[in-house]
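Supplementary notes for students who missed Thursday's class. We covered one full example, reproduced here. Read the sequence, then the structure, then the short commentary at the end.
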Amino acid sequence: MASITAFGGAFVRAHDPEALYGWYEKHLGLGRSGGYFAFPASEQRTQVVFALFGADDEYFPRSQNVMINLQVDDLDAMLDRLAELGVEVDNHRESFDFGRFGWFTDPEGNRVELWQPAAHTEPTAVGES
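Structure (token representation):
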């Protein structure tokens, strides 16, 4: 039987994709390759999570169908740098046994989650202990 072997990507609609690409390149240091951002398997620090939330869940804005979660190696430094650049950064940060989380809002109003994975741990569902 055929099976899913990995997460292939995330696709986000934008009012101005070129401007949003430029913003992510400038503010997060992402580099485009082939017209998209790619994270080679050799650079992945932990597993990729694909989670489904109820339509009325408040974990991210209800008006937003998808929230991107990006892995970082230093959550505080990344969020501090974004704030210094004038990016809307949520001051709230959360810690779990599988890592730390923080959020910012991109120019199109998308809430984006940053995850600093804990070393040598496997993620569990948000809210589980």
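Commentary. The two ends are 33 Å apart (CA to CA). The first strand starts at residue 32 and ends at 33. If anything here is unclear, bring it to office hours.
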